[in-house]
Amino acid sequence: MYKHASPQRSDEAVQGLAVASSKTSASFVAVSVTIWFIMAQMCQGQLRAQLGTTPNIKHIVVGRCYTYVTIVNPSLSYDCEEIWRQFEEAVVHQSSCNVSVEDYYQMFNVMPQIWPCNRFLFWSKTRTLMHSYAAVFRHFWTLEDTLVGYMFNDLIWCGQDEDSGFDFSSCPNWSACRNHPVYSLWRQASQNFAETACGNITVLLNGSIVNAFNRKSMFGSVELDNLNPQRVDYVNIKVVTDLKGPHIESCSHGSIVDLIQILQSRGFRWTCTDNDQTLMILQCIQDPKQSSCQTCANSLQHRTSISSD
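Below the sequence we write its predicted structure tokens.
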């Protein structure tokens, strides 16, 4: 016969379930916290490893140097081992925030390089498109095409306060200190590149962001100030926007107007183009379904039909 449980037993049952549920929840929370802590430690360790000096950096740098002088530009002759020694001397005997551009002077002295005029390509916030553009017009030279750029591109390095070797566990961010070892090298490399620029030079800027010309960027803070109007004939600015937009800045709007004013005040001759057809074609190759790509294709087809008539 089915009997109703007494109120007292019902309360005890509820309390029992509540206690069991509470214990289960507590166990779940404890397990979750433990898993979270382990994952956090693992991620933190991975983050430190990613931010430390690039593993096998000596083999990478020296190997790239030999590749450059053997295959990329065999007309040059450099002592790759000596370049590495000067680089190591500049970095490992300094704390991670105390490597100035002056510390790299000896390294740059053993790897001088002169580039032909009319081939200099500068850029800011347009790295991917810049590489595509340089690949199509192979006469262009970017900083990454120089020996120092080729050797150290995409690498991280820093020394240690208490040791004379590289720190492979963690390095500070660029923004953490002005005399960051990576920033100082690229600052000096950018200065050298700009100082030797001659003839007609090209600058690629991103019109889809605010401050396409940024005074704090490497171009705005270093390269622009080291261009010589006596050596540079024209500064050809090309403003490119993303196919999807937004269209924020142009030759007649935003920070690019400030750039033009600076060039004029320093005696540079300049040109500025908002919609370079070659740059648009390169973007359309990557994303051909954009409506602007169809417009570009129709325009090219129309020009072809006119020229064939």
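The chain has one domain: 51-300.
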